[in-house]
Amino acid sequence: MMITLKIPNEQLFDKILWLLNRFKNDGLEIITSNTEQNEATPKSTKNHVDLSNFSGMWEDREITQESIRKKAWK
């Protein structure tokens, strides 16, 4: 028998793969998993933020750690 799963996110994928791995001693064979493929390919930069884009954004403002702390505790 064979089953194919389409899992919507990596966190759920990892949980299901962890569970299925517990049954390997009972004869379960995992033929393919995206984890093997993801290790060979770089991670998506979809959620990556390049912080250098924000360089100098507070340049002409007087903002100090102390002033940020004061506003945070109001």
Protein traits:
single chain; 74 residues; mainly alpha; elongated
Structure in words:
It is a single chain. The protein has helices spanning 10-21, 34-40, 65-72. With 74 residues, the protein is mostly helical. The protein has a domain at 9-37. The mean pLDDT is 77.
Which SSEs are present, and which pair or pack?
Blueprint lengths: L9 H12 L12 H7 L24 H8 L2
Brief sketch in words of this structure:
The chain is an all-alpha fold and 74 residues long.
Could you state the order of secondary-structure elements as H and E? Answer: HHH
Query: How much strand content do the residues show?
Result: under 5%
Mean pLDDT across all residues, rounded? 77
> What gap, in angstroms, lies between the N and C termini?
62 Å
Overall 3D form: elongated
Structural class: mainly alpha
Assign a percent range to the helix content. Answer: 25-40%
Number of strands: 0
* Residue windows where pLDDT falls under 50 for at least 5 positions: none
Q: Major sheet: size, sense and barrel closure?
A: none
